[in-house]
Design a protein that fits this description.
With 203 residues, the protein is mainly alpha-helical. It contains 9 helices and no strands. It has one domain. It is elongated. It starts with a helix and ends with a helix.
């Protein structure tokens, strides 16, 4: 994969960065932690411009968020609530829980969730789905998505520029951090499920 990313950026330049970052949002196994530090390394070599690298990476990432956003818009909250009432008991999930999440996301807290979510590996791709589900207006969605994305892309690009030929160390550092985030989320989910299950047994 690294060779393919290298060849794509080498042959297509900024267009290649846009293309790769678009795919990264559709197929998360193509990590931005490789693409953007490699582009930053290209800046250090004098082959690319840092500002255009950040612009290209951000543009591709934002374009890749749209399919997930519109996927969320195709799912009606009523259907999700119906599914929760029918099958959610295995996860102690009810339509009331779905409504609570939708309400939380819809009442402006979604802006913060989208902005911060674009900074978290593994989550940044899928944060667009609840934004679409709650019919988050396009302007705030674009603004906060862009804000978080530019910060993330700038960080990765600068790390690649600073580390030079050792740009792959960025992924080595961010990999464990991403794992900690996922462990925290999964652990929190398990605690929630077990707590609700125990409450149901106590009734």
């Amino acid at each position: 994969m690294l060779e393919w990313v290298t060849n794509t950026i080498g042959s297509m330049g900024y267009v290649g960065i846009v293309f790769l970052m678009f795919l990264e949002n559709l197929f998360p196994p193509i990590p931005s932690e490789i693409i953007m530090p490699l582009a930053g390394f290209g800046v250090a070599q004098g082959n690319l411009n840092l500002g255009l690298v950040i612009l290209s990476g951000s543009l591709g990432s934002i374009l890749g968020a749209f399919p997930w956003y519109y996927l969320g818009r195709t799912v009606k909250a009523e259907k999700l609530e119906s599914w929760a009432d029918r099958y959610g008991r295995w996860l102690t999930l009810s339509s009331k829980d779905v409504r609570r999440v939708v309400s939380w996301f819809a009442h402006r807290r979604g802006n913060l969730a989208v902005g911060l979510g674009r900074l978290v590996p593994g989550i940044r791709t899928y944060i667009s789905i609840p934004a679409g589900l709650t019919r988050m207006p396009m302007v705030p969605f674009l603004f906060y998505s862009t804000l978080g994305t530019v910060v993330w892309i700038s960080f990765l690009s600068l790390m690649g520029y600073v580390l030079g030929a050792n740009y792959e160390r960025v992924r080595t550092v961010l990999g464990p951090a991403s794992g900690v985030v996922w462990l925290f989320l999964i652990g929190g989910f398990i605690v929630l499920v077990v707590t609700r299950w125990l409450r149901q047994l106590a009734r």
